[in-house]
């Protein structure tokens, strides 16, 4: 559950950069968004692994 909270916090933290990139054309903000998306991908994979492990041990 902690990792899911981290996902929500990460998304909230990049919201301003997403707006700067898409609305103002700020290239540096785009770089920060790409890095955050990579971090999000890693977190999502960790959650997937955790869920699978928990599901398999419950059987």
Give a verbal description of the structure.
The protein has 59 residues and is mainly α. It has one domain (2-53). The chain is built from 2 helices and no strands. Helix 1 runs antiparallel to helix 2 (27-57). The radius of gyration is 15 Å and the shape is elongated. It starts with a helix and ends with a helix. The model has no long low-confidence stretch (mean pLDDT 95).
Which class best fits the helix and strand makeup?
A: mainly alpha
Q: Kindly give the count of domains.
A: 1
H-E order? HH
Q: Give the helix level as a range of percent.
A: over 70%
- The share of residues in extended strands comes to under 5%
Number of alpha- plus pi-helical segments: 2
Shape summary: elongated
Distance between the termini: 21 Å
Mean pLDDT: 95
CA radius of gyration is 15 Å
Give the biggest beta sheet: none
**Unreliable parts:** none
Total beta-strand segments: 0
């Amino acid at each position: 559950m902690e990792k899911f909270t981290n996902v929500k916090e990460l998304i909230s933290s990049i919201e301003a950069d997403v707006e700067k990139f898409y609305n103002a054309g700020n290239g540096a903000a785009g770089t920060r968004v790409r890095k955050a998306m990579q971090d999000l991908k890693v977190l999502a994979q960790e959650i997937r692994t955790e869920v699978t492990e928990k599901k398999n041990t419950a059987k």
